[in-house]
Amino acid sequence: MKILDSLWGVRCVWLRYFDVFRKSIRYYLVTSFTEPVLYLLSFGLGVGALVGTMNVNGVPVSYRSFVFAGIIGQTVLFQGFYEASFGGFVRMYYQKIFSAMAVTPITLSEVLWGELLWDASKAAVAAEVVTLIGVAMGDFAPLALLSVPPVAFLSSLLFAAFGLAVAARAQSIEEISYPQYLVIFPMFLFCGVFYPIESLPGWLQWAAWALPLTSVVSILRTLTLDFPFQYWAVPILAAWLLLLVAYSRRAMSGRLVK
Amino acid sequence: MPPLRVSHLTKRYRTRDGGSLEAVSDVSFDVSAGECFGLLGPNGAGKSTTIQCITGFYPPTSGEVFLGGIGVQREPKRARRILGVCAQDETLDSDFRALDQLVRYATFFHVPVAEGQRRARALLERFGLAEKSAEQVEALSGGMKRRLQVARALISEPTVLVLDEPTTGLDPEVRRVLWQILMEERGKGAAILLCTHYMDEAERLCDRVGIIAKGRILDVDSPRSLIARHMGSTEVEEEVRPGAIWRRPPNLEDVYLKLTGTRLHAAAEAP
To answer: How many CB atoms lie within 10 A of CB A243?
Structure first.
């Protein structure tokens, strides 16, 4: 009964975000989908035409398909992180809506779950749109439309949790730029979105595997392109997910509640 | 048990240097149905911390708060169903228009959308905001935002209403509108906790007043009794500007001064 009551609270918060999304759908469509689609077009079609087919871990694959799968990972990274970090900071610090909701029959814990689940939902939907484009262009098998969403959702949750943790620790909105430039962009560039990480020096490959996006991209390529399953990606992803979700909720509660 | 009971509430914060600060010390009071209880004190006196503990947002270090007989720390979701809160800060959801905001907030209290819309329209009318129902929050003036925030506190038809400085920064006309609405809510049986540092507001609205300073309640009584007990009926002389001395009947501010040795407004304006 208590769990049902808590789920009701989380649902209320999620619906609040959905309501805002629904009312500003044009804005959200432009800001959510333009970036991944531009990456798809420029790298997939532009660079893809130059590179042609390549061999990755013994699997022949067109660069376009390879990068399409990577861009699903990039989409969950950017969408999850930005919505939770900048958006979360605005909601926590300027709008103060976390505090406003948490003095109703909804608890702060439910507010934060609602925030994370919404951020993850939104990013996962954007990732599904990229997958759909990949399927429509013949790069992925249609089954990817079913297999990608769970992974995209959990990965988005991970990056949203990182974003919320950043929002909780930031003293000003400008401070969010530090992890943006020092963590998010390096992940984007070195975790296998645009090229196989095997082409990096050994030490940099280790560093890339320590970051969660490499695992996300690896699993996504297994699901979309039938790449060999790199089983260690799962525990790495699970560990980051559990750690960041727990830490972000604790950090935000600690910031708000004295 | 009365709708609101605060029992031996103490709240200590950890300070940045590793020490601790007792913001609220052993505070106890009840607010009965149909009563307006004022909590008076300058900024930093412990009013807002007391409110944060009453709403269950801050966990008390010791003591308990009961809303409708339900412990707010033990069962916050159930206890807060009867609670309406207007925070000191503006906490309106600027992603929504005025009407939608109230309707969405009502759903947090299990109020169905159709009923929420009916209540929201009635409240906007009552607060003189009906014409602004389709406006975004950012388009409203400061006074309108404040009215909307109080209206939002009423959307769940609460039996306990907690208002933290609801009239700060409002012009006299809007203040009077809000006072009238608060008295109507009291008349309907709501238990109202009003935190303010406006003495005239407390004297006018509150059945009883608790004067709080440095986290402790110094005295609790009706405004009239507090003035009579602490000041008597002798007129007070006050130098309002150099050379200009006014004689006037004693008021709550004089009581506060006598109890704390602090001039209330001066203290309230200190950084």
So the answer is: 15
Of A95, A107, A257, the CB nearest to B77: A107
Residues of A in contact with B157 (CB under 8 A): none
- pTM: predicted TM-score of the whole model, two decimal places: 0.90
Does the distance separating the beta carbons of A97 and B91 come in below 8 Å? Answer: yes
- Report CB contact under 8 Å: A20, B108: no
Q: Is the pLDDT of residue B267 over 70?
A: no
**Residue B271: what pLDDT?**
36
Range of the domain at B143: 4-269
Q: Span A14-31, mean pLDDT?
A: 89
How many domains does chain B fold into? 1
CATH of the domain at B193: 3.40.50.300
Distance, in Å, from the CA atom of B39 to the CA atom of B205, rounded to the nearest integer, reads 12
**Complex ipTM value:** 0.87
How many CB pairs below 8 A link A and B?
Answer: 71
Note the pLDDT tens digit of each residue in B19-44.
Answer: 888 999 999 999 999 999 999 987 78
User: Is B16 an interface residue toward A (CB < 8 Å)?
Assistant: no
